[in-house]
Specification:
alpha/beta; Hypothetical Protein Ychn, Chain: A; 5-stranded parallel sheet
Length: about 120
């Protein structure tokens, strides 16, 4: 049974370096057999919208869209903070692959067994 791993991300285009590195780490966790969740909060919830991550590219890394696609294809889940999402009036029908809007209780449930979590 694989372990669990969480990456908490609160940045998007306001800090493309952190947004990119968060998904690099999330993909590494998946690649090492971890049941992996990326939790998007505050500004990072914008990454849940199709097309938004397309412009984010950091030198030395794959484009963020590619990292996010690979994460979803690998079975990774993207939890999107419901209150943060609603505050920004984003479109529930325009979510990227692997994204699901959740309340805080869902994240707590995932972490409750002692899953490590890194934050960007």
């Amino acid at each position: 049974m694989p372990g669990k791993f969480c990456v908490s991300l609160s940045f998007a285009q306001d800090n493309p370096d952190k947004a990119t590195v968060a998904f690099v780490v999330a993909n590494a966790a998946l690649g090492s057999g971890q049941d992996t969740v990326v939790f998007l909060s505050t500004e990072a919830v914008r990454l849940s919208q199709k097309g938004y991550p397309d412009a984010i590219r950091e030198a030395g890394f794959a484009p963020l869209t590619e990292l996010m696609d690979n994460f979803a294809k690998g079975g990774g889940r993207i939890y999107v903070c419901s209150p943060c999402f609603k505050k920004r009036q984003l479109d529930e029908n325009h979510l990227v692959a692997g994204a699901v809007i959740v309340g805080g209780a869902k994240l707590v449930e995932f972490l409750a067994g002692g899953a490590p979590c890194v934050s960007y």
